[in-house]
Specification:
Elements (H helix, E strand, L loop, with lengths): L5 E8 L3 H9 L1 H7 L6 E7 L6 E7 L5 E12 L3 E5 L14 E10 L2 E10 L2 H9 L2 H20 L1
């Protein structure tokens, strides 16, 4: 990890890894927890395999929208997901890359140790992400993910 370019956040999700994986694998599940509420997420593309495309449209409370398109660089069942907006599906370069995220899932006595390492291409990009409220936003998403997977367990 490069402390000048990267940000890391982790939590324990109180569910086994395979349940957390279900929350990622199915786009109908993903949109339930992906962005801090009241933001509404629509899955545009969810080709959940290495090299597959990834796209979301997030509708903000004020009616504005934020679209994001990327590529799954690596998908290892129940262990790791690496995605980036530097590429879209089929490894095609995107015009304005911002980040690459490495999600890891590990067994934990209380469930799943879930961590996200987010890599940026510049100090400015990292700072912009922090200024956007990275820790509050991703922290809220972790809480939403934990709450959502409790429903999947039942």
């Amino acid at each position: 990890m490069d402390k000048e370019l990267d940000i890391e956040i982790s939590r324990v999700i109180k569910a086994p890894r395979d349940i957390v994986w279900q929350a990622w694998r199915d786009p109908a599940n993903l949109v339930q927890w992906w962005a801090p509420k009241p933001v509404v997420t629509e899955s545009i593309k969810h080709e959940f395999y290495t090299g597959g495309g990834f796209g979301t449209l997030m509708r903000m409370e004020d009616g504005s929208e934020f679209a994001s398109e990327g590529c799954f660089l690596q998908v290892v069942e129940n262990e790791k997901i690496i995605f980036s907006d530097a590429l879209s599906s089929g490894w095609r370069p995107n015009a304005s890359p911002f980040m690459t995220a490495i999600i890891t899932l590990e067994d934990h006595p209380e469930g799943t140790a879930y961590s996200a390492q987010v890599l940026h291409n510049s100090v400015e990009a990292r700072q912009r992400h922090l200024d956007m409220g990275f820790f509050d936003g991703w922290g809220t998403v972790f809480e939403q993910l934990d709450s959502f997977v409790q429903q999947l367990k039942n």
